[in-house]
Amino acid sequence: MKTILFSIPLLFFLFLQLISGGRFHGSEFLNGFADTIGLRDEFSKSPVLSAAESIKKMKLEDGFNIQIVAEEPLLNSPVAMSFDNNGRIWIVEMENYMPDTLGSGEDLPTGKIVILSDKNRDGKMDQRKIFLDSLVLPRAISLFENGILVAESPNLWFYEIVNDKSVRKVLVDAAYAEGGNVEHQPNGLFRALDNWIYNAKSGKRYRKKEGKWLIERTHFRGQWGITQDDQGRIFYNNNSENLQGDYFSPGLGASNENQQRLAGFSESIIKNNKVYPIRQTPGVNRAYMTGILDDSLRLVNFTAACGPVIFNSTLFGEDYYGNAFVAEPSANLIKRNILINTGYIVTGQQAYKGREFLASTDERFRPVNLSVGPDGALYIVDMYRGIIQHKTYLTPYLKGQIKARDLSDPINNGRIYKIVPKGKKAEKLSIPKDSGHLIKLLDHSNGWVRNKAQQLIVDSKNKELEIPLRALLKNTNRPLAAVHALWSMEGLSVLKKEDVLPLLKNSNWTIRMQALNSVPSVMNKDNYKEFLAIFRLLLNQDDTLAAPYLAFLNPYLALFDSMAAKQVLADLAKKYPNNIYVADAVISNLKNRETVFYAELVADTSVAISKRLRKVIEEKEKRSGNSVDASKEYPKGATLFRSICQTCHSADGNGINGLAPPLNKSDWAIGDKSRLIKVILYGLSGPITIGTKVYKAPEISGEMPGLASNSNFSDEDIAQVANYIRNSWSNKGDKISQETVSEIRKKYQGRQKPFNEAELK
């Protein structure tokens, strides 16, 4: 018996040695494994379970039940969902995502948008209707007015709907998801409180006005999934961070392209990224690396964080309202976080230590998106499959894991679950379009209902609702209802200065904040002096909460009185010299005027605003120079850069906050040729020093994956993308040959672990 127990981990250890080139040490694998029978069972099998069987493998927080809402064959590979006002679920099916480890047939038009209905009203969907088919990897939807927005890379389309059928197709944005692979492209299409539609992995927002679609620049944020709190602040994450978010309204402060980092945006809300799976998780892409798994072979930190939701329903009780739930498909779990609001700053902590809200021993349970439903329950989109890592970064190690447990098949499953408290019934709710009823729903206890009611009011274009909405707005004793009334009026274009001006003096910060957010919609050449007077009043009253907003609103004031706007900025800078949020809000106004403002500031150079402004000036100077386009000389390199690198390093090579550092004027790009090749082939683990600045998480992602294990990229391809990077923007580097790439690949044959800065020095 002892021989059998010993042979199982030993054989797996030898398997790891084989696929990792002998670098997986026995001590890393065997230390701490007393339960070798359990180890054997979990490593040797990953059976396909029915939804009911899969639920039995889940460990859920006490006091809750999980219920099946939909399962195969009713749906296939779901990645996103949206409820309509009748309670039906619209599903995005990314059917051909990674059919095998080669991604064979991924570009085939098999994706669909389907409508699921509960005809017998038993709580479980029983009818499937295909709304759209023949799509290539669709990724997001948003119901809007008389139709639906559909993201199918690289395009964003709007389909008009009549009787659940598409009758007209309009192109909204031909560059919605330009560049990047399927893991790194925009998604979300989240309709926010301010009536704009925001996205993860994107710096764009969308809105339809007077029959035309508007596209505006906003902050780049997130990777997969996007949500908001009751104040309309946006939350998201990247794959290695639990939760990120904005302290301020998402439409503010994105006007200075020279400012790479803006305090209060892309903030790390939950700094603890530990996860607690209840099964061994060797099937993650870099599990062979020290520190990825613990001694029991369980994932230590997030590696696929996605699909967050701010739970603004009262169904779970007071302790859960406003909590942030985050999905982690690679560890088969859902995390609960408790958020804390202090003024405009949001912080938080994990709800539990050493355990999760929900965790499963079913390796194929892949929660990829979360949502609050019309009934107030927490809904889970489970892609239910073995492979979730895209081929671009798939390591030989993970390919071995997939083969060992037959994780490639099947690829036609998918489930929707919902979580409800024991002893409580999640009441179904259909929202009638009756205007009077919709206005009452703006005060509903479920945030999903309030948001949907606001959207339907705005979509109705019924300006006769102005009077009852104004009555609701004036009742500021019900702040959430008043906030939704305000933005409903803004969406109908009936909001007036008389509505907003009194709210700017309201003692309730929630009301005051939303009034400030709405100023751009009502301030004009005829009334701007009245707003300016209140701005000056707030400034003189030392309203520290309003101060950043006064700076963010300055571009709108400057349209009518540039001198008054300039004076407000100067006064803010002098009054709050060490407040980083005010400082960065001021700097967000100074595109290409940073140096002049710095000279006029006549302030102590040791204070925060001087330091931060000087930093922006220095970074701008580093990026200055002729912008070179190397795509003609290295066309394949340009294509590969757009597909693989651009979504993290930016099209201009200047990096993206929260993702990756700059390549433009970076010695890592134009310096040692062999070093750049090593990084492209095998990846780089941070922190990393560029010039005198150290980049580390959360300012950048902790690790950049390499391409050596991807057989789709030849040595010539690697040379092309390296040369494109070395000779684009302000870079000028000598040429890298295919032969040099081949030599380095041969020298490090079998390596999977990314390099770190110390090794490359």
Could you give the topology of this structure?
Elements (H helix, E strand, L loop, with lengths): L1 H18 L6 H5 L5 H9 L6 H6 L1 E3 L3 E8 L6 E6 L5 E5 L17 E7 L9 E9 L4 E5 L2 E6 L2 E8 L2 E9 L13 E5 L5 E4 L1 E8 L2 E10 L5 E2 L5 E3 L6 E3 L21 E4 L35 E6 L11 E6 L4 E10 L2 E6 L7 E3 L6 E6 L5 E5 L13 H9 L10 E7 L13 H7 L5 H14 L5 H9 L4 H14 L4 H7 L5 H14 L5 H13 L6 H6 L1 H5 L3 H14 L4 H8 L6 H8 L6 H16 L11 H15 L17 H4 L2 H10 L1 E2 L2 E3 L2 E3 L7 E2 L10 H12 L11 H10 L7 E2 H4 L1
Parallel strand pairs: 27-31
Antiparallel strand pairs: 1-23, 2-26, 3-4, 4-5, 5-6, 7-8, 8-9, 9-10, 11-12, 12-13, 13-14, 15-16, 16-17, 17-18, 19-20, 20-21, 21-22, 21-23, 24-25, 25-26, 27-30, 28-29
Key features?
disordered N terminus, alpha+beta, 4 domains, 4-stranded antiparallel beta sheet, Neuraminidase, 24 helices, 31% helix, 761 residues, Leucine-rich Repeat Variant, 6-stranded antiparallel beta sheet
Number of continuous helical runs: 24
The radius of gyration is: 26 Å
Q: How helical, in percent, are the residues?
A: 25-40%
List the uncertain runs: 1-40
What's the CATH architecture name of the largest domain? 6 Propeller
How many runs of DSSP E, i.e. beta strands?
Answer: 31
Mean pLDDT: 90
Domain count: 4
Strand content: 15-25%
CATH-derived topology of the largest domain: Neuraminidase
Spatial gap, N to C terminus = 50 Å
Profile the largest sheet: 6 strands, antiparallel
